[in-house]
Amino acid sequence: MNKYILSLFFVSFLNLAIGQAKKIKVLYETEAMCDQTTDVDRVQNRIVFQSYKKDTFEVNIGMAVSCSGISNIRADFNKDTINFYFDEGQLEYRTIIKKGKKIVESFISKANCDCCFEFNLKALSVPQNPKFITVNKELLIHFSDKYKTYPIKYDIIGTDT
Question: How far apart are the C-alpha atoms of 19 and 35, rounded to whole Å?
């Protein structure tokens, strides 16, 4: 009996220690416009702006994705990390008639090009200000530069490189 109680306590403690991801509601505030002036091959996915008030977390994310944008936006919160997930492309529906029955199918329509967007997302019922933000499992960092920067790989000695 004591082994049973001890193992039950251990499993309960393990679940608390690991933490369960809490699903949260996401509002996609504005339809982002494609920025055609930005080079999609050089842009870095980044956090442009973020704020936390009461239980609402707002973030602007700059990313290069399919020209058709994003859809099916969802999020969860685990410990100190908010995780956003989305599908590239637009969610579309089609009706098929099979054996006299109407069947509505959904699918993601993705354009054959990439574009730079800035998405404004609001997450509701977030228990605390997140320390980390991921989008489709990619950790994002706040950058002021839109483009990737690279460290200097040479030294100038006198007038020679």
Answer: 39
User: What string of DSSP letters covers 33-85?
Assistant: PPBTTS-TTTB--EEEEEEEETTEEEEEEEEEEETT-EEEEEEEEETTEEEEE
Contact predicate 41/134, CB 8 Å: no
Q: How many helices (H) and strands (E) does the chain have?
A: 1, 10
Contacts of 114 (CB under 8 A, 6+ apart): 40, 64, 65, 66, 67
pTM of the model: 0.69
Residue 80's nearest CA partner among 13, 130, 30, 25 is: 130
pLDDT in tens, 50-95: 999 999 999 999 988 888 888 889 999 999 999 999 988 777 777 8
Q: What is the DSSP-derived secondary structure letter of residue 147?
A: B
Rounded CA-CA distance 119/9 in Å is 43
Q: What is the pLDDT of residues 92-113, one digit of tens each?
A: 777 888 888 888 877 777 778 8
Do 70 and 119 contact (CB within 8 A), yes or no? yes
